[in-house]
Amino acid sequence: MKKAILFITTFCLVFLPLEAQDYWNTEIISVEKDQETVKKLMEMDLDLLMERNNRVYIIVGFNDFLKLQKENIPYALETFNFYPYKQKEVSLQGGINGRYHSYAELERELLALQDSYSHIARANSA
């Protein structure tokens, strides 16, 4: 039984591609919230960050920009309106979305923690 589990694990690691997310080439954008746009966004599998003042904030990469242009969805670049990725001070409020985080933001913070303290922290993905 142990050999079978080891074989399956090895097979998955060798033959299934592992994709790392490129967090340094992502941007935060906002789009106006209306029914048509929200419907298109939900079909696009984007990393939705939050909703505020009738705008939806999204974390996007290069391929996501292409999807938005293909669907004719106008957007505003918002990256520079938020705190930088590496803050100089620790805040009790957490990241750019207060105490709440998107899954990608949480993953990014856990990987940064692992990089900083590799001798005591390890991030596992299921």
Describe this structure in words.
- With 126 residues, the chain is of the alpha+beta class.
- It has a single domain, classed as Alpha-Beta Plaits.
- It is built from four helices and four strands, in the order H-E-H-E-E-H-E-H.
- It has a four-stranded antiparallel sheet.
- The model has no long low-confidence stretch (mean pLDDT 78).
CATH architecture label name: 2-Layer Sandwich
Note the total helix count.
Answer: 4
Radius of gyration: 18 Å
Q: What is the element string, with H for helices and E for strands? A: HEHEEHEH
- State mean pLDDT (0 to 100 scale): 78
What name does the CATH topology carry?
A: Alpha-Beta Plaits
Instruction: Order the strands across the largest sheet as they lie in space.
Output: 2-3-1-4
Domains, number: 1
Anisotropy-based shape:
extended
Task: Give a short account of the largest sheet.
Answer: 4 strands, antiparallel
Number of strands: 4
Structural class: alpha+beta
Low-confidence stretches: none
Binned strand content: 15-25%
* CATH class category label: Alpha Beta
Specify the helix fraction band: 25-40%
What is the distance, rounded to the nearest whole angstrom, between the alpha carbons of the first and last residues?
Answer: 21 Å
